[in-house]
Every structure is written in structure tokens, then in C-alpha cells.
Amino acid sequence: MIHLYLEQSISAVFSALLLLYQPPLLDILPMYLVFIAFTPWIMRTLVRTGERTVLAVSLLLWLAAHYGLKEWMIGTLTGGWLVIDPGAFNLFAWQLLWIGGLLLGRRFQQDPESPPLALPKALWPILAGLAIFFFCCRWPWIPIYLDLNGQDWLLDKWQLGPLRLLNFLALLSLAFWMAPALTRILHWLKPLALIGRHLLPLFCLHVCCSLLATGFIEAYELPDAWRFAILTLHLAALFCASLLLDRFSNKQISNTPTTPALSS
């Protein structure tokens, strides 16, 4: 998975620093860094031009991603001494989700009392049906099969196909609708809530554990029982790390009001 680091060490390291070389499992964080870097500029553009302009440009980039924008850029850069491998995720497609999150966050910041995504009540049964349908399509042990007739790009994860966007919109709408109930449930699922609170450092830990587990399993060709044991240890490590991070990284400052922590 990181053979280019061994074959072309200097070029691979320099290319990785430029975010041009991203081995498997190491392509999500660089994309996140790019989005973070552009966020201040996007927010200033939102203030100057409004939501419609920013959303229109984002949709155009998402469409361009499906017509080969990433592949064209890779072909343009390939040929020098740099190692060009930007990972499986198409940044030009996935930016649409990031922009959508910024728009919803800005709406909530402007009016915390109103839901950032207001949809007619008549759509709730449809959205719930879509969420259940796509959930059943995801797991092979549920007897539902979605025949795309060879048009797999509609549900493609790396390119963020339109059906995946539809599924995400349905889940997001249901999450807003069920927010009060979900909040009450999370009080009983403190470690799960803490994973969301400390998501970035825990994701870094998860990537390291995943690389080690994958290499160990493939090197020794471990049976399923050992694989499930490693997965269980992996998840337990994330939960324990979330508790440790919450205990040692959230020090209250005297005379400063703080957000109340989740009840134990």
C-alpha cells in the first residue's frame, strides 16, 4: 500500500507534502486539509455574493468531476519527477458536501431557532422510505437488489454519485427531524458522542490502526476469527481514546462559562 515510499522515497515524500501523493487510507485527511484551507475564502465569498452563487459553482465543480476534471489534471501533472496519485476520493465531487455543510452551518449561526434545512412535512415519509431502501441495498443479507443496468456511477462512492447524494440528503433531513430524540439518546451513549466531539484526532488514530491491522492480517493470512478479534480491539481502542481525550483535553478555565458536558 505504500510501496512508492520505498521505491521513490524522496519524490514520494515531497509529493505527499504537496498533497499530490496519497496512498490508500491516507487520502481523506489531505482532502479535509484542502477544504479547511479554502473555508475562510468560501465564507467571505458567501458574504459578498450570497448562497446561490457559491452553491452554483460547487454544483458545476461536482458535474465537472463526473466529466473527468480530476483525470485531466492528473494527466497534466504526470510525467515529471513527482509522484502523482491523489487517492480514490474525487475532491472536486466531495467538495459539494463540504459547501453544503458550510451553508447549513451559516444558516444555523444566523438563526439558531429555525431548522437550517426546512422541508415540507409531506416529504418525511418519502425521505424515510429512501433511507430504508438505500440501507437495505447496502447490506447483502437483506433481500433487496438495486439494478443500475451498468450505470454504477450513479451510486459511486469515490465520485459521489447522484444517488449517494440523494441518500445523504434523506439521512440528513431525518437527522434534523429526529434531533430532539437523538439528543436524548446520546446522553445514554456518551462514548459514541465523545467520538464525534474528538473526531479529528480519533480519525488519525483510526487510520494508523487500520494500516497496521490490514498489513498484519494480509501478511499472516489470518482466519476470520482473528480478524473479528482485531476489529473488536480496534473499536475498543477508539472508545477508550475518546474517553481519555475528553478527560485530559477539556480543562475548564476559571471564571469562564463552559458548555456542560454530557452526563455520565
Describe the structure.
The chain has 264 residues and is mainly alpha-helical. The protein has twelve helices and no strands. Helix 3 runs antiparallel to helix 4, helix 10 packs across helix 12 and helix 11 runs antiparallel to helix 12. The protein is globular and about 55 Å long. The two termini are 41 Å apart.
Brief sketch in words of this structure:
Helices cover 67% and strands 0% of the residues. The chain is mainly α.
Main sheet attributes: strand count, strand direction, barrel closure = none
User: DSSP helix count?
Assistant: 12
* Strand elements, count: 0
> Helix and strand succession?
HHHHHHHHHHHH
Mean pLDDT over all positions: 87
Radius of gyration: 21 Å
Q: Kindly report the oligomeric state of this protein.
A: single chain
Structural shape: globular
Helix content: 55-70%
Strand content: under 5%
Pick out the low-confidence regions.
Answer: 253-264
Structural class: mainly alpha
Head-to-tail CA distance between termini: 41 Å
Features:
single chain, mainly alpha, about 65% helix, about 0% strand, disordered C terminus
Which helices and strands occur, and which strands form pairs?
Blueprint: H1 3-7, H2 9-17, H3 28-49, H4 51-66, H5 69-77, H6 91-110, H7 124-138, H8 162-177, H9 179-186, H10 190-197, H11 199-220, H12 224-249
Helix pairs in contact: 3-4, 3-6, 4-6, 7-8, 10-12, 11-12
